[in-house]
Specification:
The complex is a heterodimer of chains A (452) and B (387). In chain A, α3 crosses α6 and α11 runs antiparallel to α12. By secondary structure, chain A is an alpha/beta fold. The two termini of chain A are 40 Å apart. By secondary structure, chain B is mostly helical. Chain B is built from 16 helices and 1 strand. The chains are: A alpha/beta (452), B mainly alpha (387).
Chain lengths: 452, 387
Amino acid sequence: MPKVYKIRKGLNIPLKGEAEKVFTRTEQAEAYAIKPIDFPGITPKLSVREGDKVLTGSSLFYDKHHPEVLFTSPVSGTVELIRRGEQRRILEVVVTPDKNQEYIAFGAADPKTLTREQVIEKMLKSGVWPTIRQRPYGIVANIKDVPKAIHISAFDTAPLAPDMDFSVKDEVEAFQLGIDALSRLTHGVIHLNVNAEYLPNNVFSKAKGVQVNQFTGPHPAGNVGIQIHHIEPINKGDIVWTVNPLDVIIIGRLFKKGQYDATKVIALAGSEVLKPRYYIIKTGASIQNIVKGNLTQPAENLRFISGNVLTGKKINENGFFGFYDNMVTVIPEGNHYEFLGWVSPGFSKYSASRTFMSKLFPRKAYKLHTNLNGGERAYVMSGQYEKVLPMDIYPVHLIKAIITNDIDKMEQLGIYEVVEEDFALCEYVCTSKIEVQEILRKGIETVIKELG
Amino acid sequence: MKALRNYIDKIKPNFQKGAKFGMFHSTFDAFETFLFVPNKVTTKGSHIRDFVDMKRTMTVVITALIPTLLFGMWNVGYQHSLMIGENWTLWQNFWFGFLKVLPLLIVSYGVGLGIEFAFAQSRGHEVNEGFLVTGILIPLVLPVGVPLWMVAIATAFSVIIGKEVFGGTGMNVFNPALLARAFLFFAYPSHMSGDNVWVAGLAHGAKAVDGFSGATPLSNAASYHIDSIPSTYDMFMGYIPGSIGETSKLAILIGAAILLITGIGSWRIMLSVVIGGLSAGFLFNILSVNPYMDVPAWQHLIMGGFAFGAVFMATDPVTAAQTNKGKWIFGFLVGFMALLVRVLNPAYPEGMMLSILLMNAFAPLIDHYVVQANIKKRLKRAQKVAQ
C-alpha cells in the first residue's frame, strides 16, 4: 500500500469558471512562441534569426552557461519575430507554422536499451530536456548532476487547475516510455505522487518503475515542492528533479516516435470564459484561437493568465502559453475604485480571513478580480502564512532574511526547499500585500549567485 | 459617489509629488484610500489577492473595542453619581462619561495621527492604519481624571519614541498604548495611581458621600482589605472604579469574541495569558503567606486590567511573539508575571502593564529560540542523511 500523506494546512480558493471535461479541437494556432522568461536563471543566446525556416525540434535559442541545453521550436515554420524588451532582452521567439508540419527525426528507441548519456543526448537535442527542473531553485536541470530522486506530481490543486487524470487520458504508453527514460537519469526512486481522494487514471495506476505516494488535502498539496518536503525534504547539497506529467508524455513520445511532439491537453478556465473547456494544443501556442469569441466582455477589461491565478504569468489576448503551463485563466481586471470598500459587509468578497460576511454565507464559487484590495504595508499580522503553508518552515522569517540579504539565514531557514509556487498562497492571504513570490525568487537568485 | 470620485480625480494632480501641494501627498493618499479602495491591480506574483487589508483588520479591532468604550463612558458617569450620592439615569451616566472621555479620545487621536501623518509624509510612505487602534486604546487604559496635556505628551512619546524611531507601525518593540500608559505612570505617578484618580471629580476635592471610596479592587487587595473587594458580579459587569476600558469583563468578552471569530486576535495568546495567570494564582493560593495570596486565582482574571490586557494588549501582533510556539510561551509568561508583580510587589498594584511591556521586550528572544530550534532540526536532518 502506498503511503498516504495528509496535508492539513492550505486553502482552496473557490473560483468561478472551472473547465468542463470536454475536449475541444482547435485549428492550428496562428503562431507559437518560446519565452526565455519561462526558464529562470538562463541567459538565452539565439540560434536563429528572423525569417529563418525551422523544423519541429530545431533549436531557437540555447543557454549561454549550458550551451548543450537547447530550446527548440514546437512546430515547423518561419521565425516571424524576435520580440525584445528593455536592454534588448529577448522576450519571445515567435514562429509561424507551415501548413505541413515537418519533424526532425531524432530516432525512436526503447530507453531501457539506451545508456544514460544516449538518453540525455536525445532529450537535449530535441528540446525536451528543459521539461526537467531541479530542486533546489526550480531551474532547468543540469546534465552533470545525478539527482537523488525524480518527483512527478500527478495532480494539480491550484485554483481551477485542470484535472490531470483527464488531461493524460489514453497516454498510457507514452507516459510509461517517459518514465522509462527518466529512470535512466537517476539511481534513486521516481516518485509518482497521486491524489488519495480518488482512484487515479490508468496512466498513473499502471505506471511501472515508480513509487506511488498518496496525498490528500487542500492546495498546495498538489505542488511537487510540498510533496518533496513531506517525502524526503531537501537538505543542503541534495538535488532532486521534478517533471510535470504532461511533459513526461512529451518525453515518452520522443522515444516512441523519434519526434519532438509537444502536444498537450490544457484547460481554459476562469469566470470570464463563456465555455471553459479542455483544448489540445502544442507548447507555446498562441491563445488567440481558443479565447476569441469565447469571452464575456471586451479583452481590455480582462486579465489573461498563462497558468493559474496564483502563479501564472500575465499575457495578452494574443499571448502564448508558457512552457510549463497547463492552463489559461481569464479573470476580470480590478482596476476600479470602490467607495469605502474596506468597511463593506462583503457578501461577495471571498477571503481566507474571517472578516467578511462571505464566511457566514459562503457561495459555491466566486468571481475574483485582480485588484490589490489595499495598500502595501510593513508586516503587522503574524501567523497568516503558516496557515496556508504545509511545510516545517517559518515563511515570514525566511522572507525577512531575503529582504535583509542574509544568505546564511536563508540557507538555515530552508530556502532550498521552496520555490515561488509554494509561497503563492502566502502572498494571496497577506494583509500587508507583500510581494512574496518576487522576493523569494530574488533570494533564490542571490543564493545561486553566491553559492553556485 | 461618482461625483465624489470625480472631484477627487480632479484635485488629485495637485497632490502629486512636485505639484503645488506635493508635500501633502501622504495625507491626501490617506484620505483618498479611506474613501475609496484604490484601483491598483496586481502586477507581479499572485493575480488575485485576498480582500482583507490593514484597514479592514484595524476596523475589526476598533469594532471589538467599542463595547468597552461605550461601557467605559457609562461607568465614568455611574461612578461619579455614586460618589456624589445621586441616583442618575442610564443616559445621565452615559452623557456625563461621554463628555469626560471624548476629549481624551480627541487629544489622543489628534496628537497621534498628526505625528503619524508627518512621519509618513517625510518618509514618502502611505499612512499606516495602526494608530487608529492605538488612538482608542490610549484613553481606555487611562484613569478618567488624567489631564489632557498629559495625554498629549504621553501619546507623542509613545508614537515618536515607541514607534517612529523604530520605523513605524510593524517595526515597534513595545505596545504603543501601554507605552503611553507606562510613561504617565512613571512620570506623573500621582495622577495614575492611588485611590483618588479613578473617579471623575474625586481628585479635585469634590465632595464624596460618606462611605464612598474610589479605590480599585486591586488597591483593596494590595492593602490587604480583602473584605472591601467588590462582589464578583460587580467586577464582572464592571460597576467598579478603574481605567476607562478595563472595568467591564462582559464588554471585554464581547470584544474577545469579535477578535476570535474574525481570527484577528490570537486565541493562542489569549488562552495562554489566562493559563499563565491562573497558574501563578494557584501557586499563590498554595503558598498563601499573606491575605493577598489567598485571593482565588480566578478572581485575578476579573480584577484590574488583566482581562483587557489579555484580549487587547498582549495580542498586538507586532509586539507579541510571532511564531505559534512563541505565542504560547509569550502569553503564559505575560499572565504569570502580571500576577507576580501584582501580588509580590506592593509598589505596583497593576502588574498587567509592566508584565506585557516586559514580555514585549522578550518576544523577539522567544521567537529567536523557536526559529533556532527549526534551524537545528534542519541541520540535524542534513547530518543524518550525510551519515
